[in-house]
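SAMPLE LOG
Freezer: B-3
Tube label: C17
Construct: single chain, 409 aa
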Amino acid sequence: MKFVDEASISVEAGKGGNGCLSFRREKYIPKGGPDGGDGGHGGSVYLLADGQVNTLVDFRYVRRYKAETGQGGMGSEMSGRQGEDLYLKVPVGTTVVDEDTLEILGDLVEDGEVLKVAEGGRRGLGNIHFKSSVNRAPYQTTAGTMGESRNLKFEMKVIADVGLLGLPNAGKSTFIRAVSAAKPKVADYPFTTLVPNLGVVSVAKHKSFVVADIPGLIEGAAEGAGLGIRFLKHLVRTRILLHVVDMNPYDGSTPAENAQVIIDELEKFSPELVNRERWLLLNKLDIVPEDEREERCQQVIDALNWKGPVYKISAITKDGTQQISYDIMSFLDKRAEAAAENPELLEQEQQHRAQVEEEARDRMQELEDRRDQYRADRKAEKLAAKLAEEMGDDDDDDGEGPEFIYTHE
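STRUCTURE (predicted):
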């Protein structure tokens, strides 16, 4: 199934049913009075987070959704049937944004969580509600109100504890294969990973965490180069970032230069995301001469002025990967205990995550606006060139045939 993590749709709640204008008509009861019933409420539109759904691809093909309209009221004081509510299933981890106001309506992070995005219209009242001592035959009714309508944008972000960063072919997919049962594609060419992959790492009974592998970044990704930075948003919910560095680059570059490229692109995407817990993984040491390993590793650490944890590993041979898994689990457990003892830490984490999401959304919108402007400029250039060509054809004098000169005396 195609992986789609963004979609835009329009939703419309059902209109409320109109109230009924009716009078009781029975034999031997000439003046039965009003008996018009109320209409039914219009159906509302809800979003339901479903753990069995992992893509937004369905919303790429159907973009308009409307809930059922409430039935109109009837005579004999019978109310109309209420419109059926519409439930749309979305993946867990979906953020819902109002495209017109850019307001974040909700964030569905739990399986089974429900969010109302469009309220159904209210029912109209029948004429039975308007009878009084001075108006015994009312002809007044009210119409049902229109349901809410909204243009929505869905942004799906995978739910993971750990995120992998690195250039293409740094060994991220190999690492996730080494520590989990996930089997992402691995090959000897760049951009093998085209969509995010998830792997569950089990370190003990009832002790596990989720790792997210995103497509590799290249220099200029913040400006749209390569696969761009579209998939970096999937790291927003992570608690640790693992920066994977290829210690034996195939293109002749240095590991320190490559590591700095990732840090620079990360800062352009979200300055706040750079402050998240990051560990350095120096990978592919199995193909580095043994007498050069320490020197190469120290060069990277010195060049980056790295103060955080450093792991020297070989993902393909699984050398050092088990210790990383244990240390990650220990870190996550300690963090959970600290948050339980001090709720302020959890609040700070939520604020940090909200700021990262805002910065990421602003950056993505900036790139999208720039892309739209580029397309508009190209279209205008082509149109201008076409007009110039047509005007040039009209003004051309090929020198053949008689020449006419018009004068006025």
